[in-house]
Amino acid sequence: MKRDIYLTADRFPLVRDIGCNRTDDWYSHPDRVLDYDVFLFVAEGGMQVIEEGIEYFVGANEHLFLKKRLHHWGRPETLPGTTWYWIHFTTIVDERIEYKRQLSIGPELEYYFSDHYQYALQLPKFGAAALHRTTEQRLQSMTESSRIQRAHRMTEISLQVYQFFLGLHQSAVNREKAAKSGKAEAHIGRIMTYLIRHAEEEFDAKGLSEYMNLNYSHLSATFSKITGQTIIEAHTRLRMNKALHLLRTTSLNISEISERLGFQNPFYFSRVFKKVLGESPSCYMNHLYR
């Protein structure tokens, strides 16, 4: 959507300025087109804003993101007594990178390379969030902190804002998951339970089908649709996490770990390890601190 704002996991937003306003009279939001993004949070009252012809009325404990280069303005409909916080920020995106959409369901690797951070996070455009009960306090603290002159002042504020925006993103994800919770989500949970229990074994589609008492093709299609990865990919990630744990915490060699995890032979184990993690088990072991 052209009105949505995305963060990337490999770069934090750069805050231009942050502050708080209050109006005691009827107020109109400025008519403008900006070269940076805007976050608004209404602590008290209500603010009217129009962005490219779409009208928003931001009530108390609600937020709105306004996207750069889109025309936004307001009529004199913002209520007297309205108090709001604002953050002006710039998102930095490397145009050479094709950022993926992150999906929060399913196992994550415990060992990250730089390309694992190349995914985008959609910020919730408008509304309330579960964390908004503490938002005013956090924004007030960040605003006051931004006024204290010190080294790395705005870098610190930008990192705090990034963490705050991540919380908004996760709040929206959790709300969406709760709204969609049902039979399919329950199936995903049971599949993950099975995969975790059998992470030290070769994947068994028939065993999973019998455990779930459902057709494997149906399970596979549902899992892929909701998590964005196949069941086999999820199982492989779990096995690689087990391998990483064994490499870090035991004196087992590669052959012993391969056998422990149910691989056909250590050469196949090494090939899977390198495909998933980008380097061989021996290379990984060379830079371990144990």
Automatic annotation (TrEMBL):
InterPro entries noted in UniProt: Homeodomain-like_sf (IPR009057), HTH-like (IPR037923), HTH_AraC (IPR018060), HTH_AraC-typ_CS (IPR018062), Tscrpt_reg_AraC-type_HTH (IPR020449)
Keyword DNA-binding carried by entry: yes
Source organism superkingdom: Bacteria
Residue ranges constituting the HTH araC/xylS-type domain according to the UniProt record: 189-287
Keywords, sorted A to Z: DNA-binding, Transcription, Transcription regulation
Cited SMART domains: HTH_ARAC
Pfam families: HTH_18
Protein's UniProt name: Helix-turn-helix domain-containing protein
